[in-house]
């Protein structure tokens, strides 16, 4: 190689110029042992090119060029075409002349040369800066898309004459390195990333050279890379799974995924990362989802928190995967809950069978202890709430699963629904649970907050909240009238907490009941003052209860004949009450309330007995003050009430030998027998309760309860339909049904047939009319 | 009536037509007077029975319902003069023989298709219930008798005669009264569901706006194994 000529060539001479700059170009590109470029060489080349391009004397060549370009009209045309052509040829030759050194892996050679070539190309670009700015720009703006600036010209030549012919080899070696890296060998990652990056640079948009174009990268690398990656991990995951099982596989995936992603970030373009991620997810997780699902239930059963959490994380980007896990969690909770409640039921039954005591016979239908039942429900909920936190990061999907499962098993389980189609007992058991806590006789040591929390939780999932309210109110009513509540503070505390969760309307009746109790207390004081201390009745505790608020109905069967010794007291109460509330109507509920009677039937020298008796029983005993023997009919005549009621209340006296039937008979009402009170009652206890053994009226109460609920639901549905129809005027059958269902949801799960009946009732009452096509119309 | 008569006269129509009308008006009025209750302007039960007998119609025949329908009888055994005279004069009919013939024709038209029959059907509910506005329903037994009477001659319902026998049993067992709504819905049910596929009731959809009694009826059929599951 001779040193470049010192003197600049004549500006108009193409060959002279080319020959002048060629040696400089070789230095710039690093040919001939890459000796480096001096600034002088660089400046000379630049000037020569500049001079050549700015020379205006070379008209012949100029017109020739412009004719070829079809731009005759312009008098001023630019120079550059010929030297561009020479450079193009030269670059081609140069690139083709590059070869790996001995034993040098091709990829290493490619990367080494590429690095140098791109530097050279940039310098070259500067050398031809003037041409780039005028001739090239003009050509391109005239639509000649095959003319490039010199940097890109160099790249195009590289691509066409080095890259493309050797693509398979380059790619194979890249993939080889990547695979070795995946196998945990140490490789020069720089080679991979430079090689891949070269493809990014080689992607040219011929229309806009400044626009990045990933076409080469995408077609020559990305597609194959993804395939190779998928294949690699497909094999790896299959063999790993078959050898180590799902648990270890998930640990492996947990490691493998970020590893691969971090590695790939070194050489992958941004746009491929998502694709890689999807591919990995598919090969590693989706394709093995079935195996993982299969293991999932086992893991849930053995409470493999850590593994389940890992599975959750692995499925995190896979919506359908999470849906599957969530759905299976839901069914798992349902099955578990069903199992546990079935067990609770069986254990209660076996306990009962073994002890076979009277309590079991007393209430065959509510066998299970309400507290045990509510605890079972709450425990299952708590258990899976923990699973939600520990395994599923409280993901909304899984919260939904727990909610759905709870909604199911809180209402439907072996205990709540012992026979199919029967109504769920959960609301009642929940009310009984609260009752057990609030009763004065309780030995419960639970805290108020705990009970309230349990109530709120169970209530959240109970479908028929109105039933709970009804049972709660009935039990509360009993506690109140029997003076049996633990404390007013507790009652109010629990009530307060129930109100937090529910609408005020829901507990308004209960609130009114408490008010009644308070005002009754004042009334009692006033009556006491009126009567004075010298009365047969020692302590009289009248309760004035608002009739639609309390779960009591006036019962004609209990029409008592009040003896004169009591009448005056009652009169004073009535008088006192009507004094302040003249417009109100009082009815005595003789079927409720109880009395304590001092009975002088003890042996001489012993204190008198104290009998706890019902109102009816009180009248029976009072009658015996006048005579010690009655026929059944005569006694019944005196007392009043219906015969079945009378018998039920008389029976405990006979059974516990306070009253003797003579001669004894199968039937209390035997007209040939007479009833006589004993002279001396024998009992070890001083206090005797005759109320608790009155034949249970539970059946009747149950009927009353369901009647009340039915009635209030009917009213609710009717009101709801009217409200909707008033606003909408006309409504499709199904739309109406759905809106009603939605409205009722917060109180109870409305049955389709009940809604229909409510609609029919309104049609009959001419609030609604049917119109063609299964719609209804509101009649104002 | 006098108003009507004077309308005809003052109408100034051709004398033959007026003459005919006059003749028929007289004849129809004479027939009404023959059967009417001596104390009132109404044909009551006795008169109805003789009228039917003279027309040669069995009271237990659906024809008698058609007669009540066209003469707008408000309840069993009750025809009002205006309804009676207006209808027959309008129809240009003035003798018992013509009446019978006209009735027979009208009846045949009415029972020909559900679309025409439904008018008679819906009328019958009010006819059975009577004009008392306080009263909202009719007795199940009465409903069943009238259903039998009504459906007996409907050829478009013969396919499902077994189904309405079952319906009668069901209604009887339920012991509930029949409201106007239920009465009318049942006919729709009969036409849309029972007669289209009496075996499987495939057009029945519990989500549709059927009266709850129909839902219960279908459930009852299922519970009693009277319904084959549809394919």
UniProtKB/TrEMBL annotation, chain A:
* Cross-referenced SMART domains: CULLIN, Cullin_Nedd8
Which of UniProt's keywords are assigned here? Isopeptide bond, Ubl conjugation
Gene Ontology cellular-component terms for this entry are: SCF ubiquitin ligase complex
Pfam families, alphabetized: Cullin, Cullin_AB, Cullin_Nedd8
Biological process GO annotation list? SCF-dependent proteasomal ubiquitin-dependent protein catabolic process
Record-level Gene Ontology MF annotations: ubiquitin protein ligase binding
Q: Which residues form the Cullin family profile domain?
A: 425-654
The family classification in the record reads:
Belongs to the cullin family.
The protein's name in its UniProt record = Cullin family profile domain-containing protein
Species of origin: Australozyma saopauloensis
Lineage per the UniProt record: Eukaryota, Fungi, Dikarya, Ascomycota, Saccharomycotina
């Amino acid at each position: 190689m001779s040193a470049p000529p010192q003197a600049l060539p004549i500006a108009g001479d193409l060959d002279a110029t080319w020959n002048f700059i060629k040696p400089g170009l070789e230095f710039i590109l690093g040919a001939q042992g890459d000796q480096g470029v001096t600034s002088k060489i660089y400046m000379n080349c630049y000037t020569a090119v500049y001079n050549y391009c700015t020379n205006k004397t070379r008209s012949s060549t100029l017109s020739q060029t412009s004719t070829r370009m079809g731009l005759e009209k312009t008098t001023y045309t630019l120079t550059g075409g010929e030297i561009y052509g020479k450079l193009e040829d030269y670059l081609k030759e140069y690139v083709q002349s590059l070869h790996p050194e001995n034993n040098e892996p091709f990829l290493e050679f490619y990367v080494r040369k590429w690095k140098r070539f791109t530097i050279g190309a940039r310098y070259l670009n500067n050398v031809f800066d003037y041409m780039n700015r005028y001739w090239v720009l003009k050509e391109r703006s005239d639509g000649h898309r095959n003319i490039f600036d010199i940097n890109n010209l160099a790249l195009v030549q590289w691509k066409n004459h080095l890259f493309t012919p050797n693509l398979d080899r380059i790619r194979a070696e890249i993939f080889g390195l990547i695979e070795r890296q995946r196998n945990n060998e140490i490789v020069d990652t720089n080679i991979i990333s430079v090689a891949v990056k070269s493809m990014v640079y080689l992607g040219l948009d011929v229309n806009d050279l400044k626009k990045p174009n990933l076409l080469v990268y995408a077609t020559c690398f990305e597609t194959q890379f993804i395939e190779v990656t998928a294949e690699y991990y497909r094999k790896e995951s299959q063999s790993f799974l078959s050898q180590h099982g799902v648990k270890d596989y998930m640990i492996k995936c947990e490691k493998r995924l970020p590893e691969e992603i971090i590695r790939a970030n070194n050489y992958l373009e941004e746009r491929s990362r998502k694709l890689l991620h999807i591919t990995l997810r598919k090969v590693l997780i989706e394709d093995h989802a079935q195996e993982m699902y299969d293991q999932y239930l086992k893991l849930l059963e053995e409470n493999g928190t850590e593994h389940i959490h890992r599975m959750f994380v692995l499925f995190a980007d896979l919506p359908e995967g999470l849906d599957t896990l969530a759905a299976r969690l839901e069914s798992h909770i349902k099955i578990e809950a069903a199992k546990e409640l079935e067990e609770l039921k069986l254990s209660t039954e076996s306990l009962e069978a073994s002890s076979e005591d009277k309590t079991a016979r007393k209430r065959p239908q509510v066998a299970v202890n309400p507290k045990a039942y509510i605890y079972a429900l709450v425990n299952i909920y708590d258990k899976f709430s923990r699973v939600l936190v520990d395994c599923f990061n409280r993901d909304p999907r899984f919260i939904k699963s727990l909610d759905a499962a709870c909604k199911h098993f809180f209402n439907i389980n072996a205990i709540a629904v012992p026979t199919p189609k029967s109504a769920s007992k959960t609301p009642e058991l929940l009310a009984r649970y609260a009752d057990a806590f609030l009763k004065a006789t309780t030995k419960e040591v639970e805290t108020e907050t705990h009970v309230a929390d349990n109530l709120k939780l169970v209530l959240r999932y109970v479908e028929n909240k109105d039933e709970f309210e009804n049972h709660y109110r009935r039990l509360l009513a009993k506690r109140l009238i029997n003076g049996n509540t633990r404390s007013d503070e507790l009652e109010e505390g629990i009530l307060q907490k129930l109100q937090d969760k529910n609408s005020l309307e829901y507990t308004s009746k209960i609130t009114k009941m408490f008010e009644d109790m308070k005002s009754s207390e004042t009334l009692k004081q006033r009556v006491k003052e009126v009567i004075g201390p010298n009365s047969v009745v020692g302590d009289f505790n009248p309760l004035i209860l608002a009739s639609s608020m309390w779960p009591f109905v006036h019962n004609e069967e209990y029409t008592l004949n009040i003896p004169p010794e009591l009448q005056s007291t009652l009169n004073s109460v009535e008088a006192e009450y009507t004094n302040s509330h003249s417009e109100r109507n009082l009815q005595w509920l003789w079927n409720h309330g109880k009395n304590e009677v001092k009975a002088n039937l003890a042996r001489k020298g012993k204190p008198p007995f104290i009998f706890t008796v019902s109102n009816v029983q009180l009248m029976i005993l009072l009658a015996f003050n006048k005579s010690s023997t009655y026929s059944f009919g005569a006694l019944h005549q005196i007392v009043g009430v219906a015969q079945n009621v009378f018998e039920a209340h008389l029976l405990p006296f006979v059974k516990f030998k306070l009253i003797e039937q003579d001669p004894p008979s199968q039937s209390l009402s035997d007209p040939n027998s007479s009833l006589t009170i004993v002279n001396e009652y024998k009992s070890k206890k001083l206090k005797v309760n005759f109320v608790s053994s009155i034949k249970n009226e539970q059946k009747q109460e149950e009927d009353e309860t369901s009647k009340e609920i039915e009635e209030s639901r009917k009213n609710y549905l009717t009101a709801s339909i009217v409200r909707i129809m008033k606003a909408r005027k006309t409504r499709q059958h199904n739309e109406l049904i759905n809106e009603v269902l939605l409205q009722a949801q917060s109180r109870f799960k409305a049955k389709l047939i009940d809604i229909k009946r409510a609609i029919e009732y309104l049609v009959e009452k001419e609030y609604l009319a049917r119109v063609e096509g299964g719609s209804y119309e509101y009649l104002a | 009536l006098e108003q009507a008569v004077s309308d005809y006269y003052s109408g100034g129509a051709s004398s033959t037509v007026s003459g005919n009308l006059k003749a028929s008006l007289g004849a129809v009025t004479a027939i009404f007077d023959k059967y009417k209750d001596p104390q009132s302007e109404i044909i009551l039960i006795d008169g109805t029975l003789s009228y039917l007998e003279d027309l040669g119609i069995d009271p237990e025949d659906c024809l008698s319902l058609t007669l009540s329908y066209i003469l707008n009888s408000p309840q069993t055994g009750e025809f009002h003069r205006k309804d009676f005279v207006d209808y027959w004069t309008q129809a240009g009919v003035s003798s018992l023989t013509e009446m019978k013939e006209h009735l027979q024709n009208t009846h045949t038209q009415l029972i020909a298709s559900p679309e025409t029959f439904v008018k008679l059907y819906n009328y019958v509910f009010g006819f059975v219930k009577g004009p008392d506005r306080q009263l909202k329903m009719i007795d199940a037994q009465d409903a069943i008798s009238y259903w039998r009477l009504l459906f007996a001659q409907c050829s478009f319902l013969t396919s499902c005669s077994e189904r309405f026998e079952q319906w009668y049993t069901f209604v009887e067992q339920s012991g509930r009264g029949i409201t106007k709504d239920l009465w009318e819905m049942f006919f729709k049910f009969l036409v849309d569901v029972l007669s289209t596929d009496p075996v499987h009731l495939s057009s029945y959809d519990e989500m549709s706006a059927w009266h709850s009694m129909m839902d219960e009826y279908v459930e009852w059929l299922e519970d009693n194994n009277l319904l084959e599951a549809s394919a």
